[in-house]
Amino acid sequence: LTSLVVWCVTRPCVCANLEVFGRYNITRFGFFAVCAGRPFLVCHILMQMNQILRLSKLLTTGIIQQNVTSKVCVTPLRFYSESPVKIEKLSKFGLYVAACLPKYVQKVEIGHVKELDILIHPDGIIPVISFLRNHQNAQFASLVDITAIDVPSRPFRFEVIYNLLSLRYNSRARVRTYTDELTPISSICDLYQAANWFEREVWDMYGVFFSDHPDLRRILTDYGFQGHPQRKDFPLSGFTEMRYDEELKRVVIEPVELAQEFRKFEFNSPWESFPKFRDSEKNTAKLADAQPAPKKELPAK
């Protein structure tokens, strides 16, 4: 039956499909039972399926038809267009947001992917995101994701990023703010229901505390997990390990049986070359100029 349907889809000839449906009673398989006695309707559906297959092939490969002797190609369609007009409108809207909220907006730019990028003060989470969500000319009503970046060399080591989407204007915006281990930032669960699990994930992975969150607890790691795995100072081996104990006949969690020297990776790493907060490239230290960490001398016995 599968090969029969595939043959009918790939053969956009009405007469051939009518012949097949007249020769074989495919309704006994439960296929197109509602179309029994309507062969022309079935053939029309199969022809539409054939057109969809040809269109999908055109979008992915750019090839309309191909045989042994000829090949006709066109340029594949691009779903993302870097329109200068759209970029200019985003730039003007970013300046408009900065003019409306000068107390919170610190920097506005168009990123390398041609999306609006707004850097704000931590106190402006609720005002700025509420403005972008409710403004008539923005309508960023969809929260795509909340993530974070950990750069220990910065005074505020965590950079929290909110990715917003406007279905009305087909535009994206990225709102960035900053915090440290002890300073909480406001939760936006009252604005977006999707922020509940996103903020729990950031708390679990980075330890960024969100105030006024209805249920801020771990979401990816196990109960009683120690530390936050996405932090740069988190040891690669972790603090505990999970294994199955043959004597107890159950899974146990116990400290990692490694010496402290093997769990502390104190060599120079790429994240030490990040700037303080992307103010300028002058503050960026070169990795080649970095000096190795001094060796610790063991006390004499």
From TrEMBL:
Cross-referenced PROSITE patterns: COMPLEX1_30K
InterPro entries reported for this sequence: NADH_DH_suC (IPR010218), NADH_quin_OxRdtase_su_C/D-like (IPR037232), NADH_UbQ_OxRdtase_30kDa_su (IPR001268), NADH_UbQ_OxRdtase_CS (IPR020396)
Residue ranges crossing the lipid bilayer per the database entry: none
Molecular function in Gene Ontology: NADH dehydrogenase (ubiquinone) activity; oxidoreductase activity, acting on NAD(P)H
Domain NADH:ubiquinone oxidoreductase 30kDa subunit: 119-239
Reactions catalysed: a ubiquinone + NADH + 5 H(+)(in) = a ubiquinol + NAD(+) + 4 H(+)(out)
GO cellular component, one term: membrane
Family to which the UniProt record says this protein belongs: Belongs to the complex I 30 kDa subunit family.
The protein's name in its UniProt record: NADH dehydrogenase [ubiquinone] iron-sulfur protein 3, mitochondrial
PANTHER family registered for this protein in UniProt: NADH DEHYDROGENASE [UBIQUINONE] IRON-SULFUR PROTEIN 3, MITOCHONDRIAL, NADH DEHYDROGENASE UBIQUINONE IRON-SULFUR PROTEIN 3
Compartments where located: Mitochondrion
Assigned keywords, A-Z: NAD, Translocase, Transport, Ubiquinone
NCBIfam families: NuoC_fam, PRK06074.1-5
Annotated spans, Disordered: 282-301
Pfam family, any one: Complex1_30kDa
Source species: Schistocephalus solidus (Tapeworm)
Main location group: mitochondrion
